TrEMBL record:
InterPro entries tied to this protein: Cation/H_exchanger_CPA1, Cation/H_exchanger_TM, NaH_exchanger, NHE_CaM-bd
Name the record gives this protein: Sodium/hydrogen exchanger
Keyword Membrane belongs to the record: yes
Domain called Cation/H+ exchanger transmembrane: residue spans: 77-470
Membrane-spanning intervals of the chain: 98-116, 128-145, 157-179, 191-213, 225-245, 265-287, 347-371, 377-405, 417-437, 449-469
Region (Disordered): 550-572, 589-715
GO molecular function, one term: potassium:proton antiporter activity
Length: 715
């Protein structure tokens, strides 16, 4: 393991050494004293001229021409090698999160740069972070967002993201202002608005840090979606509040009207980003409908429209995070229905690769940017901030969960609440925002405090949250992919709950989900999806989705074949044949004469087709007529079974004896066992049974249930 780490660091140093030299400003480069004779003087006063060489150069170096892209490639290569070495380091990934290791690599690289140049290493600018590194991460999170879980827990997520962020911001900001009043000598020049501004940025829970830790632990779906959804929307709320307090600081005075307008601005920024993302998502879905003749560029529209929605929102000073998440969620189902399987695979792998590189660069630059000359230390302010972040986060989660549990069917347990409170990791969002603060005397103190909070949450909380999950025995996620049967039963339960809510007049989440599915099927899918890609069966769609998951090679899926077996793998043509057979059989199953159940067309079918043939049901063993014939030798010679018809209209139940016929040649047997009779005919049937048809040995004839139509009963 030590050899692997040494090799990884040597490769990183070799690749990074030109970048270190390239970061040296031009004024510090050594000036040449003696020029070669080939560069003679071309002026009368003996001054040197480098424009006209006297001879042809065989080899030359022009680093300034490729400096920017060359350094970018070196940084990406350094981050990728660090990540590669991390996954080849034995037991280290089981103990140390990946984000911690990348920050350590950044600290090492920053120390090398500082030792070589004797000055601060380059920092990650806020524009580079918000315009180039953050969008791929948010796009990947929104595109692969589990839609069903997210919308089922949307109320709780918004409750945590909006009210929880306001709670943390006000609690931390007001408490820090109290600390500043208690220490007027060193912190007396920090105003209330500055404390609230710092509280708004330090309350940002970074989805990058949260995802990197929670994906390694495989926590249960409800806990994962609550923490992930809250951190994702928390960033949008944090950026809006930060810009609001930044605008307040630039005003000469803040009045009540300004506060009211600020609240309206928060709503406009959030809803504006939502509608922009919805618009670009629908446009991307519509564009993908016409890519059948150019499937090569189909994945490109996913990235272009998503990034365009983010840039448009930033241009209009709206929430870019809300825009790109909404765009990804909106266009996913329509785009995947229009593009080919290879295009889907390209989209998925490129998004994962893009977001992984961005996350790696962010954590490396967090470590590099820590080595600075601009630090300012204050024990009361730093320690108070660290303690207040933990206290207000924990109290906010407990209070908000106590309220929301009264409205939820699946309550959030105390163990999950502890993990939600403990999982509030800070990251690059607050680090980038703190550098955007306008210059004032305590800006360096804010930067130092932010770095300390980030390092503490990522290293201490990030490294101890996994042992705490195991110690508290928090429910883990089911690692096996759902089967077709589970998907069908899950949809059946959703339909039943929607029907129950409709009957009782309760407009719950299943009611609105069912209404949207009806609107989506009737209008949106017909308009946004090509006709040749309309799935003919919901069962077939489930099968295709599970097949795509299997082809992606999901890491969480268990192996379908025992690795110890030595059976021959299936050839590609055999797999294609199996897929065709399954698809054809599932489609033929959907095309049966028996109409499928649909809550929206149930009453129409019942009124339109009253003369159709009654549905037959399989009767139990006690309800079947058995005809036994015994010869002189007592051997069994034959049997016959009759089946009674069952209509879909309302029926009543009556008791009638079951005749046991001993002669199989009775011609009226089939007529007696096929139709349903009224009460009068049941009485006549008793009389028509001859004595030798009665049960032997004087036993009481067995009873059976016969269903009689109410319409026949009234005649």
């Amino acid at each position: 393991m030590a050899a692997r780490w040494t090799l990884s660091l040597l490769l990183s140093a070799c690749l990074f050494w030109p970048a270190c030299l390239a970061l040296t400003p031009p004024a510090e480069l050594p000036q040449p004293h003696n020029l070669p004779p080939s560069l003679g003087s071309n002026s009368s006063d003996g001054s040197l001229s480098l424009d006209l060489p006297m001879a042809l150069r065989v080899f030359s170096v022009d680093y300034n021409h490729v400096q920017a892209p060359f350094e970018i490639v070196l940084w990406i290569m350094l981050a990728s090698l660090a990540k590669l070495g991390f996954h080849w380091s034995g037991r280290v990934p089981a103990v140390v999160p990946e984000s911690c290791l990348l920050i350590m690599v950044g600290l090492l690289v920053g120390g090398v740069i500082y030792g070589v140049r004797h000055s601060a290493p380059p920092t990650l600018s806020a524009d580079a972070f918000f315009l180039f590194l953050l969008p791929p991460i948010v796009l990947d999170a929104g595109y692969f967002l589990p839609g069903k879980l997210f919308f089922e827990n949307l109320g709780t997520i918004l409750w945590y993201a909006v009210l929880g962020t306001l709670w943390n911001m006000l609690g931390i900001g007001l408490s820090l202002y109290g600390v500043c009043l208690l220490a007027p000598s060193s912190l007396g020049d920090i105003s209330l608005l500055h404390c609230l501004l710092f509280g708004s940025l330090i309350a940002a829970v970074d989805p990058v840090a949260v995802l990197s830790v929670f994906q390694e632990m495989h926590v249960n779906d409800q806990l994962h979606i609550l923490v992930f959804g809250e951190s994702l929307l928390n960033d949008a709320v944090t950026v809006v509040l930060y810009k609001l307090f930044e605008s307040f600081l630039r005003l000469p005075s803040v009045s009540g009207l300004d506060v009211l307008l600020g609240g309206c601005r928060v709503l406009v920024v959030g809803l504006g980003g939502l509608f922009i993302g919805l618009f670009f998502g629908l446009v991307a879905a519509l564009t993908s409908r016409f890519t059948s003749r150019a499937q090569v560029i189909a994945p490109l529209f996913v990235f272009l429209y998503s990034y365009l929605s983010y840039l448009t929102s930033e241009m209009l000073h709206l929430s870019g995070i809300m825009a790109i998440v909404t765009c990804a969620v909106t266009m996913k189902q329509y785009v995947e229905a229009n593009v080919s399987e290879r295009s889907k695979t390209s989209i998925q792998y490129f998004l994962k690769m893009w977001s992984s590189v961005s996350e790696t660069l962010i954590f490396v630059f967090l470590g590099v940017s820590t080595i600075q000359d601009v630090h300012m230390w204050s024990w009361p302010f730093v320690c108070s901030t660290l303690l207040l972040c933990l206290i207000w986060r924990a109290t906010g989660v407990l209070l908000l969960t106590a309220v929301v549990n009264k409205l939820r069917r699946n309550t959030v347990t105390f163990r999950d609440q502890f993990i939600i409170a403990y999982g509030g990791l800070r990251g690059a969002i607050c680090f980038s925002l703190v550098f955007l603060i306008d210059d004032f005397p305590k800006k360096r103190l804010f930067i130092t405090t932010t770095i300390v909070v980030i390092l503490f949450t990522v290293f201490v909380q990030g490294m101890t949250i996994k042992p705490l999950v195991e110690l508290l025995d928090v429910k883990r996620k089911k690692r096996a992919l759902p089967t077709v049967s589970e998907e069908i039963h899950s949809r059946l339960i959703d339909h039943l709950l929607a029907g129950i809510e409709d009957v009782v007049g309760y407009w719950g989440q299943h009611y609105w989900k069912d209404k949207f599915e009806q609107f989506n099927k009737k209008y949106l899918r017909r308009f946004l999806i090509r006709e040749d890609h309309q799935a003919p069966s919901s069962i077939l769609r489930v099968y295709q989705e599970l097949e795509r998951r299997d082809q992606r090679g999901d890491e969480e899926a268990p192996p379908l074949v025992d690795p110890r077996s030595h059976s021959r793998p299936l050839l590609p043509e055999e797999m294609d044949s199996i897929r065709r057979i399954l698809s054809r059989n599932l489609q033929n199953f959907n095309n049966k004469q028996t109409p499928a159940y649909s809550r929206h067309t149930l009453h129409q079918d019942a009124t339109m087709d009253r003369t159709r043939k009654p549905l037959h049901r399989h009767r139990s063993l006690g309800e079947r007529y058995t005809f036994n014939t015994q010869g002189e030798d007592g051997e069994f010679s034959g049997s016959r079974r009759g089946r009674a018809g069952l209509s879909r209209s309302h029926t009543v139940c009556s008791m009638s004896p079951r005749p046991v016929l001993q002669d199989s040649s009775v011609p009226a047997a089939t007529s007696q066992t096929r139709g349903l009779v009224d009460p009068k005919s049941s009485a006549v049937r008793k009389e028509q049974i001859s004595p030798h048809h009665q049960a032997p040995d004087g036993r009481t004839p067995k009873k059976q249930l016969s269903f009689v139509l109410e319409s026949e009963k009234q005649q």
